[in-house]
């Protein structure tokens, strides 16, 4: 386990009940995540950190509908409700999360022109966040992922990590999904194809 890291994805207020992009029972994972953090030598938290004018927000596309799919220069993009805006309560970690245990916090999605689901790359699939380099220098080769949401930021992170050569496991008991038009089934298929262990 000494070469293994726990990656906790986006356990933030806006993804929990009452938030602008609430994942059902999103806060239900917090006690279990806290317990896991005590077991791992390296703990990384990710944090969505959007400017108010982020291009993934439906509010920035007049006439569009929430959760509509649009084309961006880097590919298809879901248009989300405004969420996790820098410096707001919604962007803060859930108050029950023991965030002080983190060795590193990776903020993502701060570029207004491109979304960033993955902990490793922006949605162009090529611009790195720097997380890979950090893990390599810590001697980490195995990851376990938990957090929100299974079918977007967790699965994107898991698939990217596997593609970078890490051994990756997702703990589904400590994840929750949005399940937007079959996105959970698609995410499970994508993770399985990438060699990610789910369970």
Key features?
199 residues; alpha/beta; 6-stranded parallel β-sheet; two-stranded antiparallel sheet; 4 helices
Please write out the topology.
Blueprint: E1 4-9, H1 30-37, E2 42-48, E3 69-72, E4 75-78, E5 104-108, H2 131-137, E6 142-148, H3 150-163, E7 167-176, H4 183-194, E8 197-198
Parallel strand pairs: 1-2, 1-6, 2-5, 6-7, 7-8
Antiparallel strand pairs: 3-4
Helix pairs in contact: 3-4
Overview of this protein structure:
The protein is an alpha/beta fold and 199 residues long. It contains four helices and eight strands; from the N terminus they run βαββββαβαβαβ. The protein has helices spanning 30-37, 131-137, 150-163, 183-194, and strands spanning 4-9, 42-48, 69-72, 75-78, 104-108, 142-148, 167-176, 197-198. A six-stranded parallel beta sheet has the order 5-2-1-6-7-8. The protein has a two-stranded antiparallel sheet with strand order 3-4. Helix 4 (183-194) links the parallel strand 7 and strand 8. The chain is globular, with a radius of gyration of 16 Å. The relative contact order is 0.20. The model has no long low-confidence stretch (mean pLDDT 97).
> What is the radius of gyration?
16 Å
Helix content: 10-25%
Broad shape: globular
Mean pLDDT: 97
Query: Count the helices. How many?
Result: 4
Strand order, main sheet: write it out: 5-2-1-6-7-8
């Amino acid at each position: 386990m000494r070469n293994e890291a726990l990656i906790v994805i986006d356990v933030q207020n806006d993804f929990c009940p009452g938030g602008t992009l609430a994942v059902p029972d999103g806060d239900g994972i917090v006690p279990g995540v806290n317990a896991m953090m005590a077991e791992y030598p390296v703990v990384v938290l990710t944090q969505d950190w959007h400017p108010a004018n982020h291009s993934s927000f439906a509010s920035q596309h007049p006439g569009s509908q929430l959760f509509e799919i649009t084309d961006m220069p880097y590919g298809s993009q879901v248009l989300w409700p405004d969420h996790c805006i820098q410096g707001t309560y919604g962007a803060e970690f859930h108050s029950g999360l023991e965030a002080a245990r983190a060795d590193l916090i990776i903020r993502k999605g701060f570029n207004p022109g491109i979304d960033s689901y993955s902990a490793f790359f922006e949605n162009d699939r090529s611009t790195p966040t720097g997380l890979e380099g950090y893990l390599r220098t810590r001697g980490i080769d195995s990851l376990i992922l938990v957090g929100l949401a299974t079918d977007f930021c967790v699965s994107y992170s898991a698939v990217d990590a596997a593609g970078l050569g890490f051994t990756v496991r997702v703990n589904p008991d400590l994840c929750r999904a949005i399940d937007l038009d079959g996105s959970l089934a698609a995410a499970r298929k994508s993770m399985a194809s990438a060699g990610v262990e789910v369970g």
